[in-house]
Amino acid sequence: MQKKIKFYSLWFLLVNIIVFILQISFSEFTEKFVLNANALNGEYWRFITAIFLHGGTMHLFYNLFALFFFGIALEKLIGSKKFLFVFFISGIVANIISVNFYPSSLGASGAIMGIIGTLTIIKPLMMVWAFGMILPMFLAAILWVAGDIFGIFMPSNVGNIAHLSGIGIGFLLGLVFRNYIKKKTRKVKKIIVSDYYMTGWEKRYMK
Prior knowledge:
Elements: H1 8-25, H2 29-33, E1 35-36, H3 46-49, H4 57-78, H5 80-98, E2 104-105, H6 109-122, E3 127-130, E4 133-136, H7 137-152, H8 160-186, H9 195-205
Antiparallel strand pairs: 1-2, 3-4
Helix pairs in contact: 1-4, 4-5, 4-6, 5-6, 5-8, 6-8, 7-8
């Protein structure tokens, strides 16, 4: 029997909105939790807290939009606990890598790209709306990866390295969970019918 999902992706939407309200309400809030060099000097919580911070309304909107659609889809496929694992591992690893390249960074993009990467491996042909058109998941992922690779060489305020790190972790986790799903679906319950009932059925209906 399939366990009911907890819809953690929706809870994360609420958490991100609340945190953003705190950001715009208190000027020092972002500085206390953003990812920067202090994370390497004992303030390890920044690797997690920075996931829930955003740099503006549009940054928040795009991440919430992606988290809603891709997050729910993945959570339904692999379950709520595994979804949490994907979200936090992707986000934390992306932050551990990006802190070595950017003076400061924030946002759930690394975690969301991890979700996208995992979903791409498990459901590569799932149709999604991306780049103004309907595309299979694997093609959308290729375009996102290509865009971030080019973005590395075109300096901006976008954390392309964090994105690539997150989706890379997502690809690896997708391989693990894809095998798990395959093994789970292969387990078919055998129906055992005794010879007594089979003999009786034959005598009654096969004369």
